[in-house]
Amino acid sequence: MKFDLTQIDCVDGISKEDFEKNYLNKRKPLIIKNMARNWPAYEKWSLEYMKMVVGDKIVPLYDSSKADPSKPINASAAEMKFADYIDLIKSQPTDLRIFLFDPIKHAPKLLEDYIAPKDLMGGFLDSYPNMFFGGKGSVTFLHYDIDLAHIFHTHFNGRKHVILFENKWKDRLYQIPYSTYAMEDYDVENPDFNKFPALKGVKGVEAWLEHGDTLFMPTGYWHWMKYLDGSFSISLRAWDKSWAVKANSLYNLTIQRKLDGFMKKKFRGKYMAWKEKLAVKRANKALENNVPE
Asked: Domains (ranges, CATH) in the chain?
């Protein structure tokens, strides 16, 4: 069994007017094929190039195992020299990923290699955009971004499978309370609707990214990603114009994150078990009430 998924809209290019009218204002995902073709990075950025510019740094690595409630949030599974990690993902499948290491901070010249799509919208946030690396078969668990920014996610050096859901499905996706991720007990590619009945009927969209493709993910979209090759991506983030979204972002980043971190540290496994039980209760209630309609 699989989710009810449709293909994300895909264009070779788009005007600002078309983008604003049909995607930004509607908060609808879009793939812009080869949007990075005019970036220096389009030709320069490869695994070997990244290895050359930041290969001597030690990086935290994350795997696909379920989060350990006894450890701090975002606790790494291992550490490795970046050059050795690049050699690993070039040579074999691995579930090890990098998502809290910023090569650009260590090699500022990389800032010259990409161009933020300011011709489409304003409000871009990061001086040092986030970069993500993964080995073939590695998976980014289902979540939405805590700061609620719009994201332009550009992929390099391989392929990536992406599945997205609107935020309105959060209860049916078994969102862990006071966090921005779902229960890690089901397979997004092949969910067990008998064990997780609220997932049945959830609608989403999917896409496959290739070198130079850019995915526009509107604020609050849940996303799951699987690296089909050893490869990497860069995410450029921009504010939504809504003050309500900005206020929610501030709440997530301050009060919710700190409270959740305190409770997790103090009560550990008991707190996580309670949250998972509440996630199931909310999912079943949403299913019973046919939410969202």
From this structure: 4-288 (2.60.120.650)
